[in-house]
Amino acid sequence: MKKFLLFVVMIFSVAQLWSQVEKTTEDRTKFRIPLIGESAPSFTAESTNGTINFPTDFGRKWKVLFSHPQDFTPVCTTEILELAYLQSEFDKLGVKLVVVSTDALSMHDQWKKSMESLNLNNRGQVKIKFPLVDDKNLSISKQYGMIHAATNTTQAVRGVFIIDPDDIVQAIYFYPRSVGRNTDELLRVVTALKATKADKVMTPVNWKAGNDLLVPIPPTSNASNQGTIPDGYYSPAWYLWFKKANQ
Questions:
Q1: Which of 126, 160, 168, 206 is the S-S candidate for 173 at Cβ 3.0 to 4.6 Å?
Q2: Coil, helix or strand for 61?
Q3: Where does CATH 3.40.30.10 sit in the chain?
């Protein structure tokens, strides 16, 4: 009888273990990063600006979703303050900022209040107008593929998602906790994305606003015009065509 009970317990234990393995495997498939060209996952959550429905509340705007693993961390504090100092620059580009952090809203409120009292690099105090979103249950982080399914660690919640007015992901960045993100690069990339989307052009390496642009198709394909370059263009090689800025 004892052997039989032991056998039953072993079978039950193996079944439980197998069910956990299956559950973990199933969960892993859900924690994927939305790729460029895919729709941005939507969510409803509480924030320092009230309840938000992302991305619908932000309409036909470009959006930057900026995520953090924890409140009151030094690197993240400098990043949020820098975003706050650059709010007018993002406004000029028609960009809405949304910050997600894995702590509770009450903690966000304290962190925001503390940051707004700081004078970082003698630039003065600044108001944080964009929302800090409560993700204490990690649901948003999981939707955006920033949680490791086996451990639920928040170490990887250091992502940036640039989303266009059609709510399509257009650029993705991930950073380690030890390295601060570059807000100038975010502004540059949004500017480049807007330029390429509007004019069907491309940007060369290290492009900045006002620089010449690349064209995917030569401006002339007429055989009789071969060897001639239209005004406003130049071509270092047959496969490399530039369009002069403001043309």
A1: 160
A2: coil
A3: 43-182
